[in-house]
Amino acid sequence: MSKILEVKNLSTSFYTHMGEVQAVRGNSFTMEKGDILGIVGESGSGKSVTALSIMGLIDHPGKIKGGEIIFNGEVISTKSNEEMCKIRGKEISMIFQDPMTSLNPVFTIRNLMVEVIRRHQKVSKKKALEIAIDKLRMVGIPEPEKRINAYPHEFSGGMRQRAMIATALSCNPKLLIADEPTTALDVTIQAQILEIMKKLAKPVSI
């Protein structure tokens, strides 16, 4: 199987008025198509910073200090934000830790998903809506044709997390990053979310 992601000696730091804070130091790992990789560590150990570094979402005063991030055979750690915008959401997607703050409360799930799909795919609004409904169905949201018109606050925590997963999958990314996708969910919903993630991880042709 071919490598989809290589992280080589990644170091990411934040520069504050009190000096440098080394959030990630020398992190290295490799993933192949179909792999599931879990990064384990206590709060503040750099798990989320590692994920954000891969996504190219480290903002000032943060900076990738060293190492390489290679995605699908291409070094992406040196790409500009404009270049990464073409990759994020389409090639690499991320499920953020808190769906309530990640989903815009003034837009329906339909608005959010259709916008993401049309940003990365040349499809009509009608086709984008069909894709969105199909993804919601895939992650187990009942009556997706109706629920897609709901606002985030009208969903339970588990449903919001499913909507986040569906949105992340809407453009069929090659790599899906999940930052603590079961945080604040009860154990039954946690098991359901993890089962969805397990089913999604399977070798595909790229």
Verbal overview:
- The longest helix is centred in the middle third of the chain and has 14 residues, at 125-138.
- This protein has a four-stranded antiparallel beta sheet with strand order 2-1-3-4.
- The chain is an alpha+beta fold and 206 residues long.
- It is built from eight helices and six strands.
Question: Shape, please?
Answer: globular
> What characterizes the major β-sheet?
4 strands, antiparallel
Radius of gyration equals: 17 Å
The low-confidence parts are none
The average pLDDT is 89
Quick synopsis:
The protein contains eight helices and six strands, in the order ββαββαβαααααβα.
Key terms:
206 residues; alpha+beta; 4-stranded antiparallel β-sheet; two-stranded parallel ribbon
Q: What's the structural blueprint in terms of helices and strands?
A:
Elements: E1 3-16, E2 19-32, H1 47-55, E3 62-71, E4 74-75, H2 81-85, E5 92-95, H3 99-102, H4 109-120, H5 125-138, H6 144-147, H7 157-169, E6 175-178, H8 187-200
Parallel strand pairs: 5-6
Antiparallel strand pairs: 1-2, 1-3, 3-4
